[in-house]
C-alpha cells in the first residue's frame, strides 16, 4: 500500500489465489490482479464447510501486502445461499434466463442470513478510513448489513455479471428489497452502460427514484452513484505469461499436434451463459457449408467444470459431450478429430500458450458481464502472426473490442460465416484488427479498472 493511501478491503465469495494457478472465473482473476498491486484485506468464504459454518473462527493467510481472511459455511448455508439463491435464482435471472430461474423462500432466507453473518464477521476487522469494496451477486445485502452494524466509512459494490432489464428483474420476489439494499453503497459499479441503465431504470420505474447529475440516482433519502467501470486484465503481465517457458511448451505442443491445420480455441467455464452448445453447432455448420475446412481445422474447447452439483450444469455437460461425439462421428477421419473438449484446469501461463497457438478464438456467450478470455486472447498473440477473435455481441467486452468479428451467437449461420471469414482472413486485416484490439486492452478504460473504481469511491459524497 502506498503511503497516505486508504486500505482496500475487498469482499467476495471466492477469495484468492494470488498466484497463477487461478480457479477459472473472472472475479478471482480480476481481484487478485488488483490486490497484488495495491495490497489490503481480502475477505470471503474459505471454500470449506464445517458444522459451525459462519460462526467458526476465521482463518487468515498473509502473502506480501495482502491478508486473506476467510470463514466457513455450514452445508445448509452453502446449499441455500450459494447453490440456491446465488446460482439457481440470481445467476440465471441476471443473465436474462428467466426460464432457468427458481425462486423459493428458504434459499432467500439463507442468502440474507449469510450476508448478515459475513457482515457481522467483517465489521470488527474494518475501520471507517478503509475503502470497503464488495463484489458480485453473492453479496447484494452486505453493505446495508454493515451500515446497520454502525459502519460509517465508504462502501462500494461492483457487479461482475450483467444486470438484466427491469421487466425481467421484477420477477425476483425480493427485487425491491434487493435494489433498496444496494442503495446503502456509496458507489455501485457495472461492466457496461446497458447494465447501468437497467439498474437505474429499475430505481426510477419501480422505486420512484430520480436521476441526478454525475451518474447519481436518488431514491428517498439515499443518493448513490451508479456508474460503468469495465474490468480489464493485467495486460503487460499476461503478455509476459504468453512468452514464458510454460506457455511456449503448450504452444509448441499444440502447434505440433495441429501440423498444417488451423487451430480454433474456446476457453470458458462450463456454463450455460457461455453459448457452448450454440458454438458447437456453429462449428458443425462450418464443416457442412464450407467443406474445404474438413481435415484442415481443429477445434479445442477448454471447459473447466463449474457448479457441477446443479442440474442445469449436469444437463449442459451431457448435451455438450453428446454434441461433440455427434460432430466427431459425422466428420472425423482416421487421422483427424474435428473437435476436442477438455474439462481440466490450466495455469494461466499454459492458457496463454494455448491462445497463442490459435488462429481463431471463439468467445460467443449468450450473455456475459465482460469476458476476460477475449482480452487474454488479444494480449497473448504473437505480433508477427496474430489470431482473430470472434466475439458475441452479447459479451460486455464487445463495447471495447469492436475490431473483433462480432457475431450473434444464437445464429448458427452467423457463427459459421464468421469462422470462415476468420480462417481465411488475409494477414493485413488480421494485423490491423489485432493492433486496434491490443490498444484497447492495454490502454483503454478497462486497463485502469481498480483505480477508476476506488477513485470514484473515495470521491463519493464530495460535491
Ligand atoms: P467467467 O468469469 O464467467 O468465468 P471470464 O472470461 O470473465 O468468465 O473469466 C474466466 C477466467 O478464468 C479467465 O481469466 C480465464 O483465464 C480463467 N480460466 C478459464 N478457464 C480456465 C482453466 N481451464 N484453467 C484456469 N483458468 C481458467
Ligand atoms: C463468475 C462470477 C464469479 C464467480 C465465478 C466462478 O466469474 O462473476 O463471482 O466466482 O464465475 O463461479 P463459482 O460459482 O465457482 O464461484
From TrEMBL:
<dbReference type="GO" id="GO:0005992">
    <property type="term" value="P:trehalose biosynthetic process"/>
</dbReference>
<protein>
    <submittedName>
        <fullName>Trehalose-6-phosphate synthase</fullName>
    </submittedName>
</protein>
<dbReference type="InterPro" id="IPR001830">
    <property type="entry name" value="Glyco_trans_20"/>
</dbReference>
<dbReference type="GO" id="GO:0003825">
    <property type="term" value="F:alpha,alpha-trehalose-phosphate synthase (UDP-forming) activity"/>
</dbReference>
<comment type="similarity">
    <text>Belongs to the glycosyltransferase 20 family.</text>
</comment>
<dbReference type="Pfam" id="PF00982">
    <property type="entry name" value="Glyco_transf_20"/>
</dbReference>
